[in-house]
Amino acid sequence: MNNEDQTNVISVTNLSKHFGSYQAVNDISFTVKKGEILALLGPNGAGKTTTINCILGFLKPNAGKVSIAGIDPVKHVVKARQQLAYIPEQVALYPKLSGLENLVYMSKVAGVNKTNAEFRQLLNQVDLPYFATDKAVGNYSKGMRQKVGIAIALAKSAKALILDEPTSGLDPSASHEFSELIQDLAKGGVAILMATHDLYRAQEDAHSIAIMNQGTLVHSLVGDDIKDVQLESLYLDHVRAVSTC
Amino acid sequence: MLTLKKEWLESKREGRMVWLSSIVLLLLGCALLSSWHSYQQQQVQKQQVIKSERERWVNQGDKGPHSAAHYGIYIIKPDTPLLIVDPGLSDYQGSVLRLEAHKKNDTLFRSIQDAIQMQRFGDLNPAFIMQTLIPLLIILLGFHSISAERESGTLKQLLANGLNPKRFYIAKVLALTGSGLLFFAPVVLYLMYSLLFSDSFSADRSTLFIVSYSAYIFIWSILTLSVSSYAKTSRSALIILLVIWALACLLVPKFAIEDAAQRYPTQSSQVFQSKLESEIYTPARQQAIAQFKQDTLAEYGVDKVDELPFLWSGAQLQFGENYANKVFDRLYSQRRKQLKAQSFHYQNSAIFSPFIALQTISMSAAATDLAHHQLFTNAGEKHRRLIQNTLNGDLKDNGLQSSKQNQRYQADHHLWEKIPDFHYQYPGIYQLSEHYGRAALCLILWLAALVLLSHFAIRRIEREGQ
């Protein structure tokens, strides 16, 4: 593993994926460094979820390469997945188990060895209300479920966090709380890839932004450019431009 | 252990497992208690009959040996304590055999004849519950075990977290098998109790019983989870599994029995009995007796039977017995050959139904199958021939004096006491492997096939999300 690989926790190089004649992802490349948040923007069908599935090793790319902390998920899927945490739009948990039990099971399955007190501490760290820790997650709000998801990432000491539409359906307060949590994770050195429609949250939280449309990476923004740009206009311009081509 | 614990917690909180388990355990408990009660009653009655029968025989008074041969002896079929768990064919086979001169009788006192109409409709014995209802319970507990994880997204999330699909699948199989074995626990406890406290109990038979039932539960658990991992939805998994259950536990066995009876037909008991009589009492028999008489007279160099140094009627009766025995041996051998072919054909169908495999092994272990019944009737027939030989021999050797005095020879209790008690013990179950070997092989093949299917089921889990 070279130095560049060490800083680039998530590395996607010339990735292409097609389903029959449909080109879902076409020759895209990007990296997410340690402590960086990359927001992947794009309309429905842009190829965001396909890209995430290739990173998670659920899909085998037709061309290109993916690497998680230097590990190729195509060759070593379980090892690669152990380096990351994944939080989908709807965090899937066992409704009959409590938040704590879900965290313990999901983490231990990933090879995490902690005491119940330590797991409880993690739920406390993500601000899951104390009364909810031992309650069945069947009655949890989406925000509470996502907190459990973040706690799993913390428990795993994941090097990378993949988020798929994390703030969709969250109220502004929960969205803000979630934003703070991922900012904290990034400060702790976790590389975060966030596929989202939420332009406001992307502009607020991300260190870099990549706009996708029809499987192609159409624009990238880094650092101060993000704060200075009219993101909505830029986004719509790119999405419309490609759509009319 | 992790997934096992999680599965247990979920099942416990869901309530479905608790309800289903309670119902099945209650049914199994009731069936065991009811069988235990009737077994105990039967054993007491059988012991009383054995004792009184011996007394009746020894105290029958002075009479001609041939009269005593017709007076007859009743012998009782032995049972193993496993009869409580699997009565098998015992209700249809009868448990008492009357041994008398010239006749090879069928067994008497078939429980089914005493059953009331409703009992004939369907008997809820422990074997039926374990062979038919426990697979259904395993299906109901496990049909959604993997498909629901897929539907809810937890499977993808677990995989993304670095779950090892193989370990996950094995843990699910163990959890489901454990639940199935839990229902089997009352029977295992009973077997252990019987092993410790019953003289007539065989460790070999109970080991075979426990191993084959455990394998059966394992087979249904793997089958359920394999289907659950392949099915797109829990609903389709349930439908597929219920169809497999109905085929394996109800339709294939029914069809296999009908098919075996069609391919290897046997005559009804009445027709067979009348055939026996028609083949014994023929002109050929008269000729054979006449020839035997001539040969005997020639052997002793006399012209009349009265001049023989023994009572001719005793020798003639034994000759008639020997003649009939040859006919019995020939016709019963043909009948047994057909029944064996039927049994083997039925066992071969176990390749399509693990139910048939288990049912065959279970009845064999419990000594309630046709093979054990035939062993008992064969032993009974051997005893009958010994009795006839002894009585006819006594008449032949000791009847001459009375005959010369124009008196009827009468034997007393000394002769009756010469007839030994009938004691029969079934051979060790492994000596009888011929009778259930095919079924055992099919059960092993089912296990092997399902282990192979598990490999593909694990691959299916690995491909989740693609």
Sketch the topology of chain B as an H/E string, one letter per element.
HHHEHEEHHHHHHHHHHHHHHHH
Please bin the fraction of helical residues of chain B.
over 70%
Strand content of chain A: 25-35%
**DSSP helical segment count of chain A:** 10
| Residue windows where pLDDT falls under 50 for at least 5 positions of chain B | none
> How many helical elements of chain B?
20
What is the CATH superfamily classification of chain A? P-loop containing nucleotide triphosphate hydrolases
Q: If strands are numbered along the chain, what order do they take across the biggest sheet of chain A?
A: 5-6-7-3-8-9
Rg of chain B, alpha carbons: 30 Å
Give the biggest beta sheet of chain A: 6 strands, mixed
Shape of chain B: elongated
Kindly state the percentage of residues in helix of chain A: 25-40%
Folded structure, characterized:
The complex is a heterodimer of chains A (245) and B (466). Chain A is of the alpha/beta class and 245 residues long. Chain A has helices at 3-7, 48-56, 77-81, 99-109, 116-125, 142-156, 172-187, 199-205, 224-228, 231-244; strands spanning 8-19, 22-33, 37-41, 63-68, 84-87, 160-164, 191-196, 208-213, 216-222. Chain A has one domain: Rossmann fold (3-Layer(aba) Sandwich), CATH 3.40.50. Chain A is 40% helix and 26% strand. In chain A, the strands form two sheets. A six-stranded mixed beta sheet of chain A has the order 5-6-7-3-8-9, sandwiched between helices. Chain A has a three-stranded antiparallel beta sheet with strand order 2-1-4. In chain B, strands 1-2-3 form a three-stranded antiparallel beta sheet. The longest helix of chain B has 43 residues, at 16-58. Chain B has one domain. Chain B has 20 helices and three strands. In chain B, strand 2 (96-100) and strand 3 (103-104) form a beta hairpin. The interface between A and B is medium-sized, with 33 and 24 residues.
